[in-house]
Amino acid sequence: QVQLVESGGGLAQPGGSLRLSCAASGFTFSNYAMSWRRQAPGKGLEWVSGIYSDGSDTRYADSVKGRFTISRDNAKNMLYLQMNSLKPEDTAVYYCSKDLKDRLSYENDYWGQGTQVIVSS
Question: How far apart are alpha carbons 13 and 90 in whole angstroms?
Fold first, then answer.
């Protein structure tokens, strides 16, 4: 069955960095676009970033553009999110999700359990 397992969250100081990872299994990872989403305390789910199945195109929410970088390793079935220049407003639970297509449709059918990111001094 499809499994998405996030890791790499934790506590970071403002201005610091974290790298999130998502291990995928149970489907042909290289055939599907992938996204990161987040949910801050008391707020709704926010799409953060997405990447095409072959990594040829990446997209970012304005709130993270220039600070976060999404990448994938199709040989290892891994998705990553490098987060730099972290801000307190980046505090959230981060989820990776599988898209329905090879290009970003922003429609997802599977999600991981999430990893907590806290940005605080």
Answer: 11
Q: Which of 63, 72, 80, 76 is nearest to 102 (CA)?
A: 72
3-state SS string for 28-78? CHHHCCEEEEEECCCCCEEEEEEECCCCCCEEECCCCCCCEEEEEECCCCE
> Looking up tokens 């100081």, which residue turns up?
13
Smallest Cα–Cα separation from 29: which of 82, 91, 72?
Answer: 72
Residue with tokens 């001094």: 121
**Pairing status of strand 58-60 against strand 68-73:** unpaired
pLDDT for 10-37, tens place per residue?
Answer: 999 999 999 999 999 999 999 999 999 9
Task: Provide the mean pLDDT of the chain.
Answer: 97
CB 50 within 8 A of CB 35: yes
Q: How far apart are CA 81 and CA 86, in angstroms?
A: 12
Instruction: Compute how many other C-beta atoms are within 10 angstroms of the C-beta atom of residue 34.
Output: 25
